[in-house]
Each structure stands twice: as C-alpha cells, then as structure tokens.
Write a structure and sequence with these properties.
It is a single chain. The protein is an alpha+beta fold. The strands form ten sheets. The protein has an eight-stranded parallel barrel with strand order 23-26-27-28-29-32-33-34. Helix 5 packs parallel to helix 6. The structure holds (2S,3S,4S,5R)-3,4,5-trihydroxy-6-oxo-oxane-2-carboxylic acid. (2S,3S,4S,5R)-3,4,5-trihydroxy-6-oxo-oxane-2-carboxylic acid binds next to loops.
Length: 598
C-alpha cells in the first residue's frame, strides 16, 4: 500500500511537473534489476519436442492434451521424451542438435501460489532467437531477439498449484533477422539464460536510472518510474553515504531527483567502487549495487572521470570453448573474465551482442569497462522497416537492462557496415533511440573499410557517418585478410583524426601447438600469429588518435564459417587462447604490450 502523502510531499507534487524530465524515454519494456527482486528460478530440466517441420502450433501441442475418451489419441507427449537443461543451448546438449536450426518446444510444470496483493511476472534472460510463450494452453507472449530479456505479466493468469508453461523456440536464420543470414559465430538455439518467476507488490518501483548528474561528480541523479500511474512517495537511500532522500512521483508515476553527496568515491577502471542503493515505495523495496563515474571525450582522448584512459581491451563471445556451448552462469562469467583479466585488460568488447548479466555485473565488480553492442553484424537489411524496428527494440532492451551498470561505457550500434543512405538512416535512428534513453554513455560503431591511399601513403576511411559518433572504431586485419602495403613502421593512419579511435579488432588465426614459419600466413602457426601481433603493435604507434585496442579475440570460438579441415574444423582460430584453454605465443606479446601501456 502507498503511504499517505504528507503535506510536504503534496506540496512537492504541485511542482512535480518541473521536476520530471524523462525526455522521450518511453519506459522500460521490463522491470529494472530482476535479480534484486523476489524470484524463483524456473531453470533445470525441461521437456522438449523437436519440431523440424513446424507442426506443433497446428497440433496445439502447447495444450498438452492426453486422451480422455476411447477414440482420442495425440501424436505428441512432453512426458517421456527428450529433456534439455535450461539455461543452455540445445546444440551442445544432444549430438543430433549440433547443427539444428528450427523449432524446439520446451515445456515444464511449476507450482504457484498467487496472492491477491501481489503481481507475478515471467522473465526470460534470453531465448535464441524467436519464441512464443504459452501458459496453461494460452499464448501469453512472443519475442524476437536472442540476446536481450523480456518479461510477461502473469497476474490473474496463474493457477494455485500446478501450472504448465510451454515455449516454442526457433533459431532459423532469416534475411530480416538480427543478425541475418550469415555471421561468424555459432547459431546456438534454446532458452539460453535464466528463467524467473518474479513476485512484486501491486505498486512497485518498475524502472530506475541512478547515475551522476551531468558534469557534476558529486551530484547523483535518479529517474524513477512506478508500475502504476500514481503520485506516491519514493525513497532513495545510499546508506554508506548517509543519503536518504524522498521524491513524489507525478500522476504518471514518474519522478526525477538530484541530490548532492559528500565523500563519494568514483568507480574507476581497475578500481571499482559500488554502493548499495535502496529504492522504496510503499511496501516495495529494491536494492542494487551501483557505481558512479562520468565519461567524455577531449579531442582524441577518451575520458573517464575527467582523466584520459587508454582502453586495453579484449573481445570474447558468450561461449565456453571447452564445453562448446553458450556461457550462462556465474561460474562461466568467472572463467571468461579471469582469463581476460590475466591479459591485463581494463576493458572488454562484448562481441557481438548483449551478454548475460553475470558477465556484466562481475566485470563491473572487477573494474572492467564494457562495450556492449547489438548484433548489427554485416549483411543486415537496412531497407527493411521491420528490421529497423527490431534493431531499435534490441537496443532499447539492452540499454534498459544495463543502464545502471556504470562499467558499461560504450553502446555499440553496428559492426562493419557499408555506407548507403539506407544504412545511415537506420543507424541514425538507433543513435536517436539510444540517446533518448541514455545520454551518459559514449556511442560507438565499428567500421572495416579503412584502405591504404597510394597517393597520400596513409591509411584512410571515407564514411561521413562517423560524425554522428562519440568514438569511432575500426576492425583491421593487417597481415591476415590484408597484406601489408608498406612495412608496419611506415603504416601511418589518418582516420577521423579529430576523434578518439579504437582498433576494435585485429588478429589472425593459429592452431595452438602448431609451429611453423613466422613469415608464412598459411602455416596457421603460433609463430605467424605472434609475428602478426608484433607488426600490428608496431603499426599502432603510427595512429595518432589511437584511444584503445581490442584484439580479436580472447578464445578460439565455434563458427560454421570456418571450413579448413585440419586447422579450423568449425573453429575460428584467432583466439589468443585455444579452445582447450591454452595460451598461444601471441597472448604473451599482447600481455607485455598491455603492461607497457598501463
Ligand atoms: C570481423 C568480424 C568478427 C569476425 C572476424 C574474423 O571483422 O567483426 O565477427 O569473427 O572479423 O575472424 O574474421
């Protein structure tokens, strides 16, 4: 129940119109901070039916019928068949599903005891790629996009006792999907992240955004939105800073609050500081761990808390190579991030899609800056309005999930796109969408069309779209896809000279344990890869606006792009670490470079 408004808060309410400045943000598609809520995990073994020809919907298998009369029969049953772990991709769990692209029906029972004064929600961390959700035989939700969460409210729909949940999951690649028809990673299908049954009070703090106020390292700004449109008092506490502030929402349930702090310690790369922040309204309370930092650029420098920081980055996919499957747990996050940390990084580019919250939250605790992006990866149909709407949706979901994570400093809107009017309009709409939700990050995109200009003898790029970005990034595979036009000592860059430039990918393939000629690309040897790293590190000295580098990639990863029968076998071998977890020679070169750049 909401507390009665005090005289003071009623007065504040009168002025609420001036306090509220949510801009064009339309609000979050799901509640903020699900892990801070009262929840039950619906993880574990689910029953599945593999539906290669998409017959399940027609047969209404989500009704899970069993014969009731003598003449009845059903050509399906969820009981007694295959079972798969949730979370988890199907490809790594059953050999026959390794390459499977199509529909799999997931089903399970769960018990509920819904209370009158509560609301219940079903939350999926990610389902790859599209899905339809049915509760007790009724369709209750659909979602598209394999790397962002979604939620469906179950209030009034749950039965006391047994409930039956069915999820139709489909990972078929299509031209209008994101990513589209071909991409250089495994097309894992399944319910790949946590499934949660969440309970909240009727009125609750649905969405909040806690960060430093613009250009002020001591003032904290809080935007909050309640589930129900209603004027109510919201309390914001940061016990360690002895902060306890209240604000009254406007009639739409939203409020904005800024307050000064004393002794606030900023979150820094490699020196993480997080504060417990508690928001409450009536009988609802939600706590989060939040860090405070501010970002900017100054000419060609990236500034964190006003200081230039060179981004010593690495990329990884959300994949555990030794398991040949998607990463989904806290233990998986620890494995990936500890190997990244060992290399000496202060940043990770999460490639090429939003990764799970375990990774994001642990990286934040470790003081690692994150670049997070949506899978706008080559081959996207920029002409298709539907695809554009999907991209906006994915970006919205990514930002809403993680905008309270101060470690995320970059929102990436695209990887390797070619200039065209349609592309420009598409990407501009993404930047507008992003900036309408979050202006406290740097917006970035990775390009790959840098070329060597024979006349100027410089590496250059012609893509005016870069004007719209805070930081420009380039993927450049010198010594692998591109032979050297000049020796690395003469490889001078003149690319967006007035902005910070991150080399967001470089590298080459080597099979761990394979030794060969350091001058021969096709040796696929650790020696060649090491030499390629030495050459690229030399080239980086001639990029005047270099603000960071991010080798491609930390681990060998699985990709059907990679056919070579002995050197690749469905693996992209550009890892600094092998699929078995062994460090290749180039790893040491990169580690030493990062030590020097510290
Ligand atoms: C790229 C892509 C990345 C690929 C990589 C490669 O430019 O951005 O996703 O995996 O090249 O290995 O070719």
């Amino acid at each position: 129940m909401n507390r009665k408004l005090t005289f003071l808060s009623a007065l504040m309410l009168l002025f609420a119109g001036t306090l509220v400045s949510w801009g064009t943000d339309k609000g979050s598609p799901f509640m903020t901070n699900v892990y801070g809520r009262d929840y039950q995990l619906l993880n574990g073994k689910w029953n599945v039916i593999v539906d290669l020809y998409d017959q399940g919907e027609k047969m209404e298998i989500f009704k899970n019928r069993t014969p009731q009369k003598n003449e009845e029969f059903y050509e399906y049953s969820f009981e007694g068949g295959l079972r798969l772990n949730v979370p988890g991709d199907w490809n790594s769990q059953i050999p026959e599903l390794k390459y499977y692209e199509g529909t799999v029906w997931y089903a399970r029972h769960f018990d509920a005891d819904p209370q009158q004064d509560e609301r219940q929600f079903l939350y999926f961390g990610a389902v790859s790629y599209r899905c339809q959700v049915y509760l007790n035989g009724e369709k209750i939700a659909t979602h598209e996009g394999g790397f962002t969460p979604f939620e469906v409210e179950l209030t009034g729909k749950l039965r006391k006792g047994d409930n039956f949940l069915t999820v139709m999951v489909n990972n078929r690649r299509t031209t209008d999907a994101i990513p589209a028809l071909a991409f250089d990673w495994w097309n894992y299908g399944g319910i790949t992240r946590d499934v949660m049954l969440i309970t909240t009070p009727r009125q609750y703090v649905r969405d909040y955004f806690v960060r430093l106020a613009d250009n002020d390292s001591r003032s904290v700004q809080v935007s909050v939105a309640l589930a129900e449109p209603q004027a109510a008092e919201v309390k914001v506490e940061i016990p360690e800073l002895k902060i306890s502030e209240t604000v009254v929402t406007d009639a739409s349930g939203r409020a904005e609050l800024t307050f000064k702090t004393r002794g606030l310690q900023l979150w820094q790369p490699e020196n993480a500081k997080l504060y417990d922040v508690v928001l409450s309204c009536g009988n609802d309370t939600v706590s989060d761990e939040i860090g405070f930092r501010y970002l900017g650029t100054d000419g060609t420098k990236i500034l964190v808390n006003g200081e230039p920081v060179f981004m010593r980055s690495i990329s990884f996919h959300e994949e555990i190579p030794q398991r040949k499957g998607r990463a989904f747990s806290q233990a998986d996050a620890e494995m990936l991030l500890s190997e990244a940390r060992a290399l000496g990084v202060n940043m990770i580019r999460l490639a090429h899609y939003p990764q799970n919250e375990y990774i994001v939250r642990l990286a934040e605790k470790m003081g690692i800056v994150l670049w997070q992006e949506i899978p706008i990866w080559q081959g996207i149909d920029f002409e298709d309005a539907g695809t554009k709407a999907k991209a906006q949706n994915m970006l919205t979901e990514m930002i809403h999930r993680d905008r309270n994570r101060c470690a995320v400093c970059f929102w990436g809107v695209a990887n390797e796109t070619k200039p065209s009017e349609a592309r420009n309009a598409f990407l501009l709409s993404l930047l507008d969408t992003g900036r309408s939700i979050d202006t406290s990050r740097l917006y970035v995109a990775a390009f790959d069309l840098v070329y060597f200009n024979e006349e100027t003898r410089h590496f250059e790029m012609d893509d005016p779209f870069t004007e719209n970005l805070d930081v420009v990034a380039v993927n450049k595979y010198m010594g692998w896809y591109h032979p050297w036009p000049v020796p690395p000592t003469e490889a001078v860059w003149d690319v967006v000279p007035d902005k910070p430039l991150i080399i967001s990918e470089f590298g080459g393939e080597a099979l761990y344990g394979q030794h060969g000629d350091r001058n021969v690309t096709s040796s696929w040897s650790e020696e060649y890869q090491a030499r390629l790293y030495e050459d690229n590190l030399e080239m980086f000295r001639h990029i005047p606006n270099l603000a960071g580098v991010s080798p491609w990639v930390l681990f060998d990863f699985r990709s059907p792009y990679r056919f070579h029968p002995t050197n690749q076998e469905d693996w992209n071998r550009k890892g600094l670490v092998s699929d078995q977890g062994y460090r290749k020679q180039a790893w040491y070169i990169m580690r030493d470079y990062y030590r020097q750049m510290k």
